[in-house]
Design a protein that fits this description.
Length: 180
């Protein structure tokens, strides 16, 4: 289940830029992003998946420059969701490969992921509203910035559960084990 969701997200990360603007070089970059992201899911290596996600986001930002101003809201939402799922499922796969997952951990994790996706979908119109007020000549320059801001918000939603579990004492004394 973890790998299937991760591979589906890797396909979305790679093929959404091609859907926006089917250029030859952009297609090559998107295909490379798909292969790198899928490799990160299959290994499982969060670093490789992050590299593929960054490449996919760069290809998506280039595609955003060439599309008309109004047609990118839904693909942006799907791209942010795909990046969120890709990075999250890769990190979860790496965690399960190291020590296994306890009963109910996958269900709880998927519920948190669903909540983060709903919050990202609710925040997308808030991020897209300033882009609608930009003059048409400027919108091609600033739309990738808004897309990156949406990606950062989505990444913060994924990283929060992992970053919130560390405290100064756990860094100094090592992480707690379930037996402690």
């Amino acid at each position: 289940m973890i790998r299937a969701l991760g591979l589906l997200a890797a396909l979305a990360v790679g093929f959404l830029p091609i859907d926006l603007w089917p250029g030859r070089w952009l297609g090559c970059a998107a295909l490379l992003a798909t292969l790198v992201s899928a490799g990160g899911v299959l290994l499982p290596s969060p670093g490789v998946a992050t590299a593929g996600g960054v490449l996919g986001m760069l290809a998506f930002a280039v595609a955003l420059i060439f599309v008309p101003p109004g047609g990118a809201l839904l693909p942006s939402l799907i791209m942010g969701t795909a990046l969120l799922i890709l990075l999250d499922m890769t990190a979860l796969g790496a965690r399960s490969a190291r020590g296994g997952l306890g009963a109910g951990v996958l269900a709880a994790h998927l519920a948190r992921l669903g909540l983060a996706i709903v919050l990202a979908a609710a925040l997308l119109p808030v991020l897209a509203a300033p882009a609608g007020y930009l003059p048409t000549a400027w919108s091609g320059v600033f739309r990738p910035l808004f897309a990156v801001a949406g990606g950062l918000i989505a990444f913060a939603g994924v990283a929060k559960p992992f970053l919130g579990s560390y405290t100064t004492s756990s860094i100094r004394n090592g992480p707690r084990r379930e037996s402690d």
